Amino acid sequence: MDMMDLEEFTKNLEAEFEDIEPGTIAPVTNYRDIKGWSSMYALIIIAFVDTHFDIALNADDLKSSQTIQDLYKIILDRKKS
Amino acid sequence: MALFKTLNVSVKGISACVPKEKLLTREYEYFNEAEKDLFIKSVGIEERRVASREITTSDMCFVAAEKLIKELKWDKQEIDCLIFVSQSADYFLPATSIILQHRLGLSKHTMAFDVNLGCSGYIYGLQLLSNLISTSQIKKGLLLVGDKSSLSTHIEDKSTYPLFGDAGTATALEYDVNGAPVYFNLQSDGSGEDAIKILDGGARNEVRDDTFEIKEIEPGIKRSRRHLQLNGIDIFNFALKEVAPNVNDLLQFAGTEKNAIDYFIFHQANKLINESVRKKLKVLEKEKVPYSINFFGNTSSASIPLTIVTEIKKEMQQPKKMLLSGFGVGYSWGSCIIDFDKIICCDLIEI
Q1: ipTM attached to this prediction
Q2: How far is A63 from chain B (nearest CA, A)?
């Protein structure tokens, strides 16, 4: 599977969340600022990344990242190694 | 590696018991509407059963066992082994299995002991009992498995309270020279001990003055040190890393092709976790992976037999090759490949 680019990653991740107007989330969005953010959102992100990239994000990965872009970078780094 | 090929033993029947009382996610007062929607969609729990004060795990297992013994037309005097797997025993001591031996009217020649495991408990219990039967004079044995998890969650802890349901189950195993080999792969990793834990009340942290004090851990999470704590992200990460390789190793050890498996029954942890595991294992046929979590929540060690009873009871009238997998608290996890040859599957009991 071709690696999705950052824009696609953001759009696809946004589609995983409930009740969010399309286009609300940008690569620079701090995902913890998403309306109604809870730990359940974290699980949705982990499931999404695992399904699409076969990478298991852990608690430290989430702690060390703020934005969608940060998450994408972790995935890229992990893919390389 | 704790890989096993166990011979000369068969599962003869399964029975499950849940409390009558339902709690609906829609009615959980500490979730707002958006949280309810998200929880039902992603975790997958719409309702669950919660036992009243006077009903314990052993009561549910007792009822399940009585019905199963009756439907199998077993002579109670021939049951030589009883294993009770639970993390909600009746007392600190004696072991609940021994109380159940007497309560069920089994003979004094019965070997009875408890096993303290949660979500992986059904697989461990099956392994222990089948191995005992395979290598001893024991001909018939009962595996009683379940939990009253509602005992240990606090209503103001959104990370645990809406997740767990109560259930007790019974599984009957018998010595059978025609039984197909049963394969197991069992694992543990105690570095995850804090991921799901009750801090106080054991020997490490005895009950103390502030044990029952309810504290706010973070917004939406209030509990005491006697309540269950759960780190969803760590658990999820563990399940994603460990479950699929464990299952794949087992398939390889058993020399079984994935498409020879009729049903994959996973511990009902959380729909997001289970769906991720299903995709990792590349099991594309959703109907091969039944769920009971929608109506019963996470029922700990009871979730695998409960799912069989509630979701594929009719299919058990035909021989089926099953892959069962349990994973969670500990961390502890394991899987098994087992042939069910027209087992008795009792109707779900509600008490």
Answers
A1: 0.83
A2: 11
